[in-house]
Amino acid sequence: MFSSAYDATIRRTNFETANSEEILDADLFGDENLVHSFDFTPDGHNIYAVDNGGGLIHRDLRAPMHTAKRWHLDKHKVGSICLNPANPQFAITAHLKRYIRLWDLNKMAHVPVGSLETETMAKAMVLQYEHQKACSSAVSTARLSRPCTSPTREADARWSSCAVL
């Protein structure tokens, strides 16, 4: 079982042995990087997480924790990330400032860490959709041709898709 907590970490916990292991510490990239969402590549070797500072963190779990990288995707909170299980080079993110964005993670790997969000967007963003309200989550499944999102207000629940993958 994996969980994120208010200490800016992601942990792997084994209920049978009651052992808990820290696998990601967002504070390595500065204070106040609370993790809001994370997802894994289908092989389980890589984790991607987004934080309230607008960052995307990647760690190869076979490598030491200090090798993790963080890119700036936004000036504001990124609420969720979901990798496309059929094509995990693509991830969709939901943003506090009304956007959902589709990213090419292969291209992201070539964006210098520490780049401004405008450079990250120019080099790795595939497309974006601006909604009328803040977007709190986005999901992509192998069965869907389009990612579905969860807007923050119940009145907007009719709105459910945004971009073709």
Notes on the protein architecture:
The protein is mostly beta strands. It has a single domain (2-156), classed as 7 Propeller (Methylamine Dehydrogenase, Chain H), CATH 2.130.10.10. Helices cover 7% and strands 43% of the residues. The chain contains two helices and 13 strands; from the N terminus they run ββββββββββααβββ. The strands form four sheets. A four-stranded antiparallel beta sheet has the order 4-5-6-7, with no helix packed on it. The chain has a four-stranded antiparallel beta sheet with strand order 8-9-10-11. A hairpin with a 3-residue loop joins β9 and β10. The radius of gyration is 15 Å and the shape is globular. Mean pLDDT is 85; it is low at 144-165.
| Largest sheet properties | 4 strands, antiparallel
Helix content: under 10%
Measured on Cα atoms, how large is the radius of gyration?
15 Å
Coarse shape: globular
CATH topology: Methylamine Dehydrogenase, Chain H
Portion in beta strands: 35-45%
Runs in which pLDDT lies below 50 for 5 or more consecutive residues are 144-165
Structural class by sheet pairing and helices: mainly beta
> Considering the protein shown, what is the CATH homologous superfamily?
YVTN repeat-like/Quinoprotein amine dehydrogenase
> What is the chain-wise order of helices and strands?
EEEEEEEEEEHHEEE
Mean pLDDT over all positions: 85
| Span between termini | 29 Å
Write the CATH architecture name: 7 Propeller
Q: Quickly name the level 1 CATH class.
A: Mainly Beta
- Number of strand segments: 13
